[in-house]
Amino acid sequence: MPSVTWVRVLKAQKASEDRQKDLEKDLQKSHSEVSGLQQRVSMIEKHLASNQSIRSFVLDNTSNITVPGNDLHTRNASAKFYVWNDSTLSTLYPDE
Predict the structure, then answer these.
(1) How far, CA to CA in Å, does 64 sit from each of 42, 59, 70, 83, 90?
(2) Where along the chain is composition biased (Basic and acidic residues) (predicted)?
(3) 9-27 pLDDT tens trace
């Protein structure tokens, strides 16, 4: 019959293995989230690059977007960025 010390060692080893598995799952989830964010950033960069008249934008503390050097209207940007430029409406979805 195993001693009490041996049982404690086995329980500690099992807990350690379970924790390692949990950490590996968390790491895989984090990699997936990073990949998704990189894709979103790339999409926004391509969208902004395709519209030559929009060079940059700033999200200020009132959740409005200002685009330096352009005559634009701004809207509350809590869910979406709406940018009017000439006759073009560009909509960016930061949370999709």
Answers:
(1) 22, 6, 15, 10, 15
(2) 17-32
(3) 899 999 999 999 999 999 9
